[in-house]
Amino acid sequence: xxxxNYNIYFHTHTVSGIVISVVLFIIFFAGSFSFFKSEIxxxxxxxxxxxxxxxxxxxxxxFDSINKxxxxxxxxxxxxxxxxxxxxxxxxxxxxxTVAANKLKDTLEVAKLKSGHYFYLNTKNFKAxxxxxxYSIGEFLYRLHFLAQVPYPIGYYLSGFVAxxxxxxxxxxxxxxxxxxxxxxxxxxxKEKLKTLxxxxxxxxxxxxxxxxxxxxxxxxxxxxxxxxxxxxVMALYKGDQNKLxxxxxxxxxxxxxENKKLATPFSINELVEKTKSNWKDFEITExxxxxxGDTNMHxxxxxxxxxDKKFTAFGKxxxxxxxxxxxxxxxxxxxxxxxDGVKNVLYRVHFGDYGGYALKIISFVLGIITCFVIISxxxxxxxxxxKKNMPEKKRRFNxxxxxxxxxxxxxxxxxxxxxxxxxxVFYPLSRANxxxxxxISWLLLTIFFLLKRDINFTNKWCLISGSILGFLIPIAxxxxxxxxxxxxxxxxxxxxxFIDVFWIVLAAITLYVSFKLKKVKSE
Length: 524
What we know:
The protein is α+β, with helices and mostly antiparallel strands. The chain is about 60% helix and about 10% strand. It contains 20 helices and 8 strands. The protein has helices at about 5-35, 35-45, 60-70, 100-105, 105-115, 135-145, 155-175, 180-185, 195-210, 210-235, 240-250, 270-275, 340-350, 355-385, 395-410, 415-425, 430-455, 455-480, 485-490, 495-515; strands at about 75-80, 85-90, 115-120, 130, 285-290, 300-305, 315-320, 325-330. Strands 4-3-2-1-5-6-7-8 form an 8-stranded antiparallel β-sheet, with helices on one face. A hairpin with a 4-residue loop joins strand 7 (about 315-320) and strand 8. Helix 2 (about 35-45) runs antiparallel to helix 6 and helix 15 packs antiparallel against helix 17. The model has no long low-confidence stretch (mean pLDDT about 85).
């Protein structure tokens, strides 16, 4: 490679990497924990859904319980099912029966009937919770990994463009090391000078995580800034009509007219769900939608999929007309999944990593943390390369200050994340506002503390040590506050609760070991 191309790739790689480093670290660190979102949610609530058992939902009883609190007549309502949680997400539109609504004298009841409602429902005790009431650590970390806490759409677009810049950094990094990509992969010299240590670690770990990083850079950019990409097409091809686009992409179901006549035929949603499941082996229900509840033109749409370990992309549905039980439309998950279905679903499956069980989640978590280390090592290479005697002292101090800020912001996430787990058990339940307060205020205070210490070595070491100590305390806090000691949850087949406790013990042990093996970095 000639010097001109090398310099172009080197500076592009360095600049794109340094500019996005802090935000990219936040995205990958929070995203790594997000692989265990369902497990964290269940750990927090003291609930579990056995992985080897299918959660059975009584849809008739569930809809009856909803009907007691919200009159369903004339509404469109859907239940979104998660196989890893007891809760379902309920979404309902306002009633189409405006005549019945107008007969009510209570204005609050009229407003309740005409308005839409969205909430989570526990299918065991039928307790309903709004989004804010059901907010959890798992949801917080999941949304943090695409900066959703930043006002919309700024956070979404920022995370999307960071992913795009990360893609540039990956490509230029590969081009930069292309000639020695194989030989450098096997070189690791921990006893050499500091720059050599960081460079070897950055190169080797960067190559190990390259496929993972490339996939997440592409899919992350796609999810977060696709609206900017799609918007011109909507305006030009669909004249601004998004519904036409969604219809072409097969996101929308057909709409059935409300006839305003009460359905006389008795019906069982359970029977239609079981009938749907019997069509295909191992078919799992993901959503049950009802249009025109209680009307003669009532239709039930049962969506589902064949498990990913059987077939990677296999989504199907059946639409029933309730009055006569006839099948209006049917999509066979084994034969009717087209190229469009693959395009829509593969990116989601690859990004969420939910198709390979715990093994894939753990591997994805490890690769995510490796990526965090690659980011940090890249910043350290940048610092060490500029910490030379022939460089003006003022510039050296500035570079050192920049890296201290980077490390304080990034590494303090570890003890802060462990702290929020403990706070959740001690003060359960924490509201969304409380989770924000505990996490962001403690993050700010810890960052300021490490900045005031003005010591990179201290920040590196004590972020790991404090995070490790708090990590060891998490299963203790869970055991004391709830009685769910990890040996008991294992014996009771509460695998998700057990997993999070043991996960923190293992993670804390590893980071504590690493903290005592850190090589000192020359600080200001």
